[in-house]
Amino acid sequence: MTSPAREFSVLERICRPGQLEDSRVLIGPGDDLALVRAEGRGDVGGAEILVGVDQLIDGIHVDIATVGWSAAGRKAVTRSLSDIAAMAGRPVSIVVSAAVPPDVTEASAMELFDSMKETASQYHAPLVGGDLAILKEGPLTCSVTVMAVPPPQGAVTRFGAQPGDGLYVTGQLGGAWRGTHHLTFEPRLSEASMLRAILQDRLHAMLDISDGLGRDAAHLVERSGLQVVIEADALPCRDGADVSQAVGDGEDYELLLAAAGEVPEGLGACPVTRIGTIQERPDPDAPPVVLEWNGANHDISQSGWEHQ
Predict the structure, then answer these.
(1) Closest Cα partner for 164 from 279, 261, 291, 276?
(2) How confident is the model at residue 15 (pLDDT cuts 50, 70, 90)?
(3) How far is CA 136 from CA 65, 105, 133, 140, 235, in A?
(4) Do 174 and 293 fall within a single domain?
(5) Can you tell me the mean pLDDT for 215-242?
């Protein structure tokens, strides 16, 4: 019997390093965004462009009947902008492809579109094009493609962590689904730019937390022999959330970073908290991410959620 596809299993195969042999691809599949060089003509050099795509699906990422079309449109855009923040980029523009259910009204479709357009403009990433389809059946599906430019110091990848790095997180974690945070969060674009400018080459790796701290922290060391050690007592839990929720809920859209030396304790009104350390993995079979909690080490490498 053929087993059903699982999101992370399929992505692991797609994102294996070394599959693309093209000099224009500077960062390929596996990071928050790809980095490509657009070749110039004659004496004009090519520009480096960050590009990526993400989806929002009714029933998985939002419940339209509960939150409404405007909130769905905002989240469709901000979750993609959060990927730009993960690499310390600056947004340039977005394009959107939307497939809407057959019973959608024109008023609802325009509410969705207006929300996406206004949100994109708010973050200086104008909506410059896209496509619309009316489904015969099925839920709303929005696909948002973002384009950005890397910072002067270069894009930050998720794979550069080094032994001895501190592990830091912006904001608070846990309970995002239980309230409105997953709908109202602000992509950490400014904070990421400040971190890159302040830390320079000491900022070794960064990503945004969408699938859960445990599962996302594992990405920082998936191409190395390193281990992430997280201290439960250091986790900045959102009001009403406990350690388990901070580790596994996801949808936080906060920055998780590995850096050497001193890191600011705050960036404007946004706190930055040290929650752990990057170290050599004790042995090849040791879990990539462990949580020090109540006197024991817990494997939290799979803590998070996966679309089934």
Answers:
(1) 279
(2) very low
(3) 19, 14, 10, 11, 46
(4) yes
(5) 97
* pLDDT at 4 (0 to 100): 57
> Contact at 8 Å (CB) between 200 and 261?
no
Which of 149, 177, 203 is the last residue before a domain boundary?
Answer: 149
Q: Are residues 79 and 139 in the same domain?
A: yes
Of the candidates 192, 189, 187, 124, the residue with the CA atom closest to the CA atom of residue 153: 192
CA distance 46 to 38: 5
Please, are residues 298 and 183 in contact by the beta-carbon 8 Å criterion? no
Per-residue tokens: 120: 């994109």
Average pLDDT score, the chain: 92
